[in-house]
Specification:
Blueprint: E1 20-30, E2 33-57, E3 65-76, E4 82-85, E5 90-93, H1 98-105
Antiparallel strand pairs: 1-2, 1-5, 2-3, 3-4
Length: 106
Amino acid sequence: MARGRKAQPKPHDPYGLGEWVKFKWVVSRLNGQPTRQSMGRIRTGMIIGHRNVYDCLATEEGPPALGNARPVIIVAVSVHRCYKVFKDDILLEVQPIESEVEHVGT
């Protein structure tokens, strides 16, 4: 950032870090492209990050290229497991249950 310039405030993102959400669909990869996959049940977790997923584009020479960046949200459902979820697939924001807070925090 140039000197003397102040950072512009970002618009409020309802899916900020630490928010509790519910979801049923996760991001998986099929033929080099990110796609949705059903988990079969609704899971609850905490948002721990934001990333991009990319399509794998074939090239004539050299390694494959990456293109078509799509934002995803990383949701932790336990200490050892997290999932990538598209923003459109988040079902509901929820308040944490005390037992879930203790479980995720340990």
